[in-house]
Amino acid sequence: MNIPSGIVTFLFTDIEGSTRLAQEFHDSYVDILTKHDNILKEAIELNNGFIFKKVGDAFCSSFENASDAVNAAVEIQRRLSENHSKEFDVKVRIGIHTGNAEYVNEDYAGYVTLSRVHRIMSVAHGGQVIITAEVYDSVKELQEGKISFRDFGKRKLKDIVIPEHIYQIVSQEIHSDFPPLKSLDARLNNLPIQLSNFIGREKEIEDIRKLFSGTRLLTLIGFGGTGKTRLSIHIASNLIDEFANGVWFVELAQLSEPTYILQEIASVLSIANDKKRDLFDVVTDFLRAKEVLLILDNCEHLILECARIVEGLLEQCPKLKIIITSRESLRIFGETIYQVPALSLPDIKKDITVDSLTRNESAKLFTDRAIAVRNDFKITDVNARSVAELCFQLDGIPLAIELAAARVKVLPVEKILERLSDRFKLLTGGKRNQLPRQQTLRALIDWSYDLLSEQEKLLCMRLSVFTGGWTLEAAEKVCSDDELDESDILDLLGSLTDKSLVKVFESDQNLRHSMLETIKQYGNEKLTESGKKNSIQLNKFNFFYQLAEDSESGLTGTEQREWIKRITSEYDNIRDCLKWSQENDPVCFLKMCVALGKFWELRSNFTEGLEYFQKSLERNENAEPLFKAKAIYWTGFFLINQGKYMEAKKYLNQCLEMFRLLGYQNGVAISLLSLGTLSVFESDYKNLKEVSDESLKVSYLLNNRSYIARNLQNIGLGLMQQSKHNEAREKLEECLSIYREINDSVQLAKAIGNIGALEYLSGNYEKAIAAFEESLRIRNELGDRQGIGIALNNLGSVAYMQKDFERSEQFLEESVEIMKELGDRRVYVTPVNTLGSIANDRGDFPRAIRMFTESMLVSNEIGDKYTMAKSLEGFADIFMKHKMYKEGCMMAAKYILLLESSNKNLIEAELLRISEIKERLKANLSEADYEKYLKAGEEMTIEESVEYASAIN
Length: 953
What we know:
By secondary structure, the protein is α/β, with parallel strands linked by helices.
């Protein structure tokens, strides 16, 4: 191509924030630069441009005509925007100018032109294209209809004496909304220069811009340290060109008296004082005809006078707009309020990666500020989790994060995180030029706390006892005493909410309140200092104990779902009460555990519940007999669900004896009922009949419909396991009818699942699926984790029988994860075993062996002969597929013996399967060998069977 010379249009580019990008994407920065270079090279050359120099990430190119250069610039920005992603966060600024220059010795000579185009580019922002008047005059008609131009007028550029008339290219294909140009003569303002990067807030900026277009008074409210001031300055800097008479920032934090507010405004606006006139009139006259944006920063301590002045100014000055930053709103007509949230937080419940943190506002701020004090700092796979948890514990409060980041000079992130329990000592040492209250986290909160009334201070400190939020009712009962009347709590809580110290959110159609963790910790310190902490904690225990006690009946009645939601929403507070009572009052601890037993059962919190009950019994040898008996009952019940049948039986028989001695018939009925459940799992049908008959008798005397139904359910399950399907169906449908009558959704879901199991055993797979899916739907609605795992296992079993292995695996693997989480080994073994069968059918023998071994070992531990037998059946099949008939015969012998002794589900299909295996072995072994290996297999112990099975490896 011909190299342009003489009158040349130059297009210069560079990447905005390239140093930050190199640090943030240190592992992939070379790839990012390569992609950037390819985009620019193609766009420039396709539009007849010549790249004559490349310095780092900066491109210097020339064009014979200005129109090609403009087209290239738009194409560059369009393609960069299209490729923007979390891995490619590149913003390029572009300057275009036409002037004299000669191409000599592989470079251009023409300092004036080249320096001018460089200065033009330097005032632009990433993503922006700036051109001079010379370029504009050449392309304004040629480009008509394709692009438009924003006229910035004449601007003074660094080292260039004569102001340059400059324009921005505007196109629908590229971003066009940018902060003011970085020229030396932007419109009048006194906005503080920000020496650190502004991180995140894209959504907030967009929301505020939309709100501000329709209001003259915008109040940014939020807790101290959330970045209200910084956000207001950033927003205002983007609006400078909209206000002909400037943007003015008025800092009120250091003012001690309301009378100084107007003086400060006048001083910022350089308004001369007129002693003969009222200062408000002087300021009003000055602003009346002017297009001005006024920012009044930190108004909370002067809120009433600020409201009066702002309302008066807006009434008298029609072109005036005002932004307020404060902990609370002005509450005047025409005010638009925007609650400034904390920065977005990492989801610490998920896997934390370096990549995920580069997209999170809190983590990005921490990284940026940490690099400022230690330039080799970076987030790695080692410290990523600590960075995420640090940001989370600091509630995404920018100031707190910045103070924490400053500590990386002397501490690794992991050590900073460890010290957050005393965050007020750790988070100090802010910038010397900051306000005193912004130099330490404690000073920041002291500022807010000191502005409260005495009653507000009392409530604020007392609310710190709550964990995970609270309701108005809870606050009224827990926080009131002779110093703080219950009737005053509503108004005081509203006042603390207005002052951004308390947050309100909606949960299950109920309003709940919460505090940032930092405020909670501060309030807790104040409460401890007050000497009232223990009495407020006792109030809290009494309130939540009453709630838990009321739930015992509610969780079995028609409002079961509502009670599950209610206790779940308060569970963090209840856990805190458990901890407090365990340390301070063992009797209260035991009573709270007993009150929560039903909830733990319905939520499948078996491991947690068992741990609490065992601790409560350790410290309550002389506890009230009835409560102790109930605690022993729940211990036995939860042991059943962990597959620890022998221990469970010991506890259940102990509490049964205690209930009989106490004459507590309700306890007798439920203990016998649970012993019946245990008999089902152990296939002890004789004992099942005895305990169920007695439990039913007592249940009928008590007219306890729930106990009656659950006994019928146990009887039906026992009949089903004995292949007496018609009798089983009769019992299960009877209990199903009762559950519908009493609206017990948890037990209803179980009974529907039992009906599904009947259909499954009968080979009616479509009916089984319908029942299992209905059961799963109800259990999902209830949040019943154990029930969800059982339903998923059942659906996986049906899919396996239908040879839909992929679908079956999805169900089964999810079931396995849930059962691992719950510690429910009783159910766990079944999906593990079926996964082994799938692997076996697919020929993935190593996986099949692992699954069958795991299932067999756990089944042996919990005494589940049936599942153990099914695991050995799998081994037998693997051996036979490898033509190892001796080993297959020994495994089959053990499997058949266990299956027959389990006395469970010996349906026609199982008997046919046994017959087929025997015939296959007889066809491949002599009669003598068959009998010999069969006898040897039957005599093996389970441990010997496992060891023998390893021979397949």
